[in-house]
């Protein structure tokens, strides 16, 4: 068997079943080549948008050392377990959430764990959480192409990934790494979302590209991928996150992403 074939078979060999009561229809990984691009925001907002369409949504926070999902949904109470498994917390609009922050005694406790422990926590979030019926589960991956993204790709039946990026030049190399990882793991890439694309001038409504000209369209074309949306730097986004009210955020920046996701069902 060639190295390529071995790599493409890795995923199947390590896959683990979800809890026996779980019926999860589609698993979407949200990845970024580097940190700080707003990946958690986009993961949460995609769940909100699909929830608004009437789908049963869930977010698995695989960003174990930097978990931010519960906070943007305003969920703080600890998750409980019964003899069958861990019960996910529900947001106001009934998106199911599991994150390490929901299991720690205090949200401020830093997670100083080695890679294998982090990876096995993510697997448990898949296999030991009582997700029950879910149409779309969004997995907020830690940034980069390290241990945890690898574990998620190997262990979970990921139906597609969405790559989040910012507009700068350096990003082309970083996105290439994320694309190559998904290709190596044989996971379909649904497309790219660009965050921090522009600001809109409050007076003349001109769009200003704060980070210079965007390279996202070029990169997407290079890899034959769709650009699923461009999100501006917008105070309403920061405010929705700060107020822990992502479910109240309004913005039609991700319509194409919604369409692509709907077509998966
Ligand atoms: N387009 C945007 N406009 C305004 N604020 C934003 C935008 N995107 C993200 N933010 C703000 O930045 C904060 C951090 O975003 P988020 O947690 O999604 O990403 P991150 O910290 O960059 O980490 P990562 O992308 O690695 O998960 C959010 O709480 C939000 O307040």
Automatic annotation (TrEMBL):
InterPro entries: Mrp/NBP35_ATP-bd (IPR019591), NUBPL-like (IPR044304), P-loop_NTPase (IPR027417), YlxH/NBP35 (IPR033756). ATP binds at residues 33-40. The keyword Glycoprotein does not apply. The keyword Nucleotide-binding applies. Transmembrane segments: none annotated. One of its GO terms (molecular function) is ATP-dependent FeS chaperone activity. It comes from the Bacteria. Keywords: ATP-binding, Hydrolase, Iron, Iron-sulfur, Metal-binding, Nucleotide-binding. GO terms for biological process: iron-sulfur cluster assembly. Belongs to the Mrp/NBP35 ATP-binding proteins family. Homodimer. Binds and transfers iron-sulfur (Fe-S) clusters to target apoproteins. Can hydrolyze ATP. This is Iron-sulfur cluster carrier protein. It comes from Anaeromicropila herbilytica.
